[in-house]
Specification:
globular; 211 residues; five-stranded mixed beta sheet; two-stranded antiparallel ribbon; alpha+beta; 9 helices; GTP Cyclohydrolase I, Chain A, domain 1; 7 strands; single chain; 2 domains
């Protein structure tokens, strides 16, 4: 795989080119069904291992995402140095502790320094890091650091808010508990006015998470 920009690859933490072992996933799912006392041969479960295998291939595709193909040369030289915000980006990820989903919204901002990125690429970057086994804190930081390495802006800010199934349906079972994480780089960390402008913008009309 080409390494045109090692810093961007490092920020993206590309894990592997290896394809998902669907046969192994199917066998593992079948073993789980047997372990919980189910019959994997009964009508409703016959194709469950195959379905689960395809599901994990899709939900964890971020391990094999190529950041250069993702960005696809959608970087543009523009004389613009005011804040750019993309808010309410839906994301879906998997908690690495229990392999249960956490679902939420991301708000991303950067202050350009001669270079901007195509609008659709920011949600794609969020998706790339979301489609891995994650913790929300690391996910938030990865998105911010990747954009910082890619664009070299004055600053990058990322706020993520999510509801975690591992605390909603097991353990403490708190259905309405939400987790908010943030990563502030560059001027968003050092300049309170920039930080407050970003936070004010994402708080206006922000929709609550509903499931």
């Amino acid at each position: 795989m080409p390494k045109e920009n090692d810093a961007v690859y490092k920020a993206a933490e590309l894990i592997t080119d290896k394809e998902v072992d669907c046969d192994l996933l199917e066998k593992a799912t079948r073993n789980i069904l047997i372990a919980i006392g189910e019959d994997p041969e009964r009508e409703g479960l016959k194709r469950t291992p195959e379905r689960v295998s395809r599901m994990y291939d899709e939900l964890l595709s971020g391990y094999r995402a190529d950041p250069f193909k993702l960005v696809n040369q959608a970087l543009f030289e523009v004389g613009y140095d005011e804040m750019v915000i993309v808010r309410d980006i839906e994301f879906y990820s998997m908690c690495e502790h229990h392999m249960l989903p956490f679902i939420g919204r991301a708000h991303v901002a950067y202050i350009p320094q001669g270079k901007v990125i195509g609008l659709s690429k920011i949600p794609r970057i969020v998706d790339m890091f979301s489609r891995r086994l994650q913790v929300q804190e690391r996910l938030t930081r990865q998105v911010a650091e990747f954009l910082d390495e890619l664009l070299h802006p004055t600053g990058v800010a990322v706020v993520m808010e999510a509801m975690h199934m591992c605390s909603m349906i097991r353990g403490v079972r708190k259905h309405d508990a939400r987790m908010t994480t943030s990563a502030m780089l560059g001027s968003f960390r050092t300049n309170m006015a920039s930080r407050m402008e970003f936070l004010d913008n994402i708080s206006r009309g922000s929709e609550a998470l509903h499931f």
